[in-house]
Amino acid sequence: MNRLNALLVPLLLLWAAAGLAQTPNRAAVASANPLASEAGIEVLEEGGNAFDAAIAVSAALGVVEPYGSGLGGGGFFLLHRASDGLQVFIDGRETAPGAAREDMYLDEHGDPIPGASRNGPLAAGIPGLPAALVHLAENYGRLTLAESMEPAIRYAEEGFPAYETLVQRLSRRVPGLSEGAREVFAPGSDVPAAGELFRQPELAATMRTLAREGHDGFYRGAVADMLVDGVQREGGIWSAEDLLNYSVVEREPLIGTYHDVAITTAPPPSAGGVALINMFNMLSGYDLAGVDRVTRTHLLTEVMRRAYRDRGPYLGDPDFIAIPVDRLTHPYYAAGQIASLRIDRATPSDSLPGIQPDGAGGGPQTSHFSVLDREGNMVAATQTINFGFGSGFVAPGTGVLLNNEMDDFSMKPGQPNGYQLLSAEANSIQPGKRMLSSMTPTILRTDDGVALLGSPGGSQIITIVFLASLAWTEGADAATMASNPRFHHQYFPDRLMFEPDALSEEEEEALLGLGHNMARTRQLRGNGNLQIVTWDRRSGEVDAASDPRGVGEPRFSAP
Ligand code: GLY
């Protein structure tokens, strides 16, 4: 436990003992799909806690939102246990297979081979999500894994009505799917029509094996054999040892503060928590309440730029490299970063020292959910198979769509990945290593309230969580946090992207005048998909919201 965590926990317990703490008046689940939210509530109503509900939601998302996440991918689960204040981060990130090599996606000239890290089983890391679900059930849940996975298995076995977004995304992705994946997602060569029942019997069978046998049900035995066999047949490099060797890692969350708000968030191998705390540290030097909208946008953009600059040189898998997390999240470091920040002028990214690029590309998926139970247990979890429908590969017989998370590694220093993110040696490919992520599940707390939040959005995840968190510190409710228009800067490319309704034409002109490269873009629209639960600790009121950019809906238990 780090020093802040050690300080916060006794304070919370003292506060509870003084009779000031309320328990939530109802439980809530916010996720990217109504059926997944319902799965969480169903398990809570059967006597499960937030950790059981997280298993239910996670597994259900893999069935009903197959383009975003699933058993073939990985995820991060940030937990807060009410009984003892424990805060822990379950790292179920994928790992590089044992036969992976630093230059495996480069041609003989040392140039990236187009699509090699994105399509087919060679693009897939060893999945972590099944292990994370087992770990949650064995260490934090109250129900069995099988009980918590039951709604997801039912959705896969009995089917659910295909919805418009799924149909559209499937139609676009089908040409790039493997034969095994087409048999799942376009049986008889047709994608399901909207409203048609969409069943995934092989995935249901794999989930039943996992639910019955636990870790070994996925990582050894018949399912593992089918996975390794299928991957190797199509040019992938997984081995049986890779699956046997996989394990989740429990890590200490990062903890920062902004005014009276305690921020509990994702440590490496996520880049998100470091950047989030760093941005809030930089922001602490300014009085945002006293500035106009143009200056506010300018300041926020400049702190985004500076935080993202550090992603490439410093961040990667903490089990493989030394990361100066304490320095990067220290207020003194932030003070140094804002020494170059001018209130009347944009700082060109290439005037800040850092990795410089030579390429581009991108368009992301992933899925976040937040759960709060009646006891005050909390889960903020973000999970992914990386780009839409991951690698597009299903190992025959398993129904499990594999990720293309290998693209989150650095192929080559200075070469941007699919999200145009730059990274280098710190994030190079090595056997068994976890690829750097942007997923940023976060819990915000003050004496009066709590917010659980996170989002998909590739490189934009971190600024989406940042802007929503900032809105909460300024009094916004869950719905406003989720729907607020967004803007984004990630150091490279040096451009301020913004949703069409984020800035007026006059504000855009003014920011252009400060030297920002303005990009009014529809690309941000529909990219993020915040899922937020809030709890007013004085009244006990619980609220939740799903981002209007997606199709998700929160669900609540009866009060
Ligand atoms: N694959 C997206 C992320 O982990 O950031």
Q: Give the overall shape.
A: globular
Q: Can you tell me the residue ranges where pLDDT is under 50 for at least 5 consecutive residues?
A: 1-7, 9-20, 356-363
Q: How many individual β-strands?
A: 20
Question: What fraction, in percent, of the residue positions are helical?
Answer: 25-40%
Number of helices: 19
Strand content: 5-15%
How far apart the termini lie comes to 34 Å
Q: Pairing-aware structural class of the strands and helices? A: alpha+beta
Instruction: List each distinct ligand once.
Output: glycine
Query: Radius of gyration from the CA trace?
Result: 22 Å
What is the mean pLDDT? 92
> Biggest sheet, open or closed, and with what strands and sense?
7 strands, antiparallel
Strand order of the largest sheet: 6-3-2-10-9-1-20
In brief, what are we looking at here?
This protein is 34% helix and 14% strand.
Structural features, described:
The chain is an alpha+beta fold and 559 residues long. It has a domain at 24-251 and 362-427. It has 19 helices and 20 strands. A seven-stranded antiparallel beta sheet has the order 6-3-2-10-9-1-20, with helices on one face. Helix 2 packs antiparallel against helix 3 and helix 13 (293-309) crosses helix 19. The longest helix is centred in the middle third of the chain and has 17 residues, at 293-309. Bound molecules: glycine (GLY). The site of glycine (GLY) has 9 residues, from loops.
Tell me the layout of helices and strands:
Layout (H helix, E strand, L loop, with lengths): L2 H15 L10 E3 L3 H12 L4 H15 L9 E7 L6 E6 L36 H11 L5 H14 L1 E2 L2 H10 L5 H7 L11 E2 L2 H13 L2 H4 L2 H12 L6 H6 L3 E3 L2 E5 L2 E5 L6 H12 L9 H17 L1 H4 L10 H4 L2 H7 L29 E6 L5 E7 L8 E2 L6 E2 L39 E4 L3 E5 L7 H13 L4 H6 L3 E2 L7 E3 L6 H9 L4 E3 L10 E6 L5 E5 L8 E2 L3
Parallel strand pairs: 16-17
Antiparallel strand pairs: 1-9, 1-20, 2-3, 2-10, 3-6, 4-5, 7-8, 8-13, 9-10, 11-12, 13-14, 14-18, 15-16, 18-19
